[in-house]
Amino acid sequence: xxxxxIAKARRERAxxxxxxxxxxxxxxxxxxxxxxxxxxxxxxxxxxxxxxxPEILTIAARNTLIFTALGFIxxxxxxxxxALARISSVKAYRVFAGWYIEIFxxxxxxLTIILIGQGLPLAIxxxxxxxxxxxxxxxxxVVTGAYMAETIRAGxxxxxxxxxxxxQSLGMTRPQTMRYIILPQAIRIIIPPLT
Length: 195
What we know:
This protein is mostly helical. It is built from eight helices and no strands. Helix 4 crosses helix 6 and helix 5 packs across helix 6 (about 130-160). The model has no long low-confidence stretch (mean pLDDT about 90).
């Protein structure tokens, strides 16, 4: 049995070395086959960069701030809804929120942006009327909402369960207790992770 373990380790090492050699050879082959003058002309041309320099920074900075603000606001609304659905006593809400969170946390952001920005308008005609700017905001909000939902849910669950019981003992309904007692305490807890 000991000899079999050594043979297995040698096979694994040989496989690993072979993989490194093949990948390295392929990489070197790609580097040698590349059209370097064209790469420098199209991607690394200082004249093109100089012509775009002031505008590209100001436009990019402005758009980044706009998309960040709108994506955060939309994402927070979605996240709060999904976090409350995730801890709901209704099983259908919990299942839907769980699927939503797992799917959009698992998909890469770029893929989600492409699907919402280009895929939905191709598949569903109603989405063709939405400007591309708002499709981008929706995509960012959907993904942000999935990530923030888990943060908000954890913040809500971090509030001691006695707070819910105390609110209900005062005659408040469950939604009132959540709104006036639990959520204000949870917001204080979730501010650091959200930033």
